[in-house]
Amino acid sequence: MKANREHSQGDSIRHAFSSLGCHELDLDDVLTLARRHGIEEVELRALGGTIDLAEYFSRRFKTPQALASHVAISGIRVVALDASCCLISDDDSEGRSELLALAPWADALGAGRIRVFDGGSTLDQGELDRAVANLEWWIQKRAAHGWACDLMIETHDTLVTTPAILRFLKAAPSGTALLWDAFHTWVKGGELPVDTLDAIAKATVHIHVKDGIISSGAERTARHTLPGQGHFPMKALLDKLRSIEYSGPLSLEWGRKWHAYLPLLDEALETAEATHWW
Is the whole-model pTM more than 0.85? Predict the structure, then answer.
């Protein structure tokens, strides 16, 4: 069934989704799913049951140019490749190797960004120094190879409050970009998305959204729900994004790979569309 996108005519919001929510699908099926829902952009996190994207691409397409030509036929744009590595970790070599493997594929696809998790646990000076060193290493490698793609750091572990994010951005090289997971700063950080966005909008190039019900226990957690069936203040966020003329992707991160109780991404997208959630 073709999605009805009439409600978004004239809307500047760029809807996308992460293939994390359909991790079992091959690339062609992901692109078909996007077309069926009138979505023109996707970010790739998992394909064919694996999160090793470089291995999947190499096995299926052999060369970055062959992959890019194949995707171009679909009319769907790949806006990001999502790595598994962390900016702050105990072993930088593994993460750096993953980025070097992914970058040629991202560059050929015209995917502007590679997602890297923040990582860390304390964001003390030692962790900040490690983050900066890895960002500076990337800047050098990117320049040496002439890659157009760049990194974006996801607010996932230590970067879940505005003070932590701002401390990181102050230490990071100029131009460091964020993938803001609005759900994480809302659940883990206890912040209203509109307040967080006020502080970090200039560095935000990509946004993850999802919905959930906040727990009533001492520890603030959330159980994921279909879009519109939880507590996430989506309308307020959308109003804010439009008011600041946010121009990056707004991506549904449907975490069915990690949360097996969730229904198929197809149903989540249908629900989001039917309820005008986004």
Answer: yes
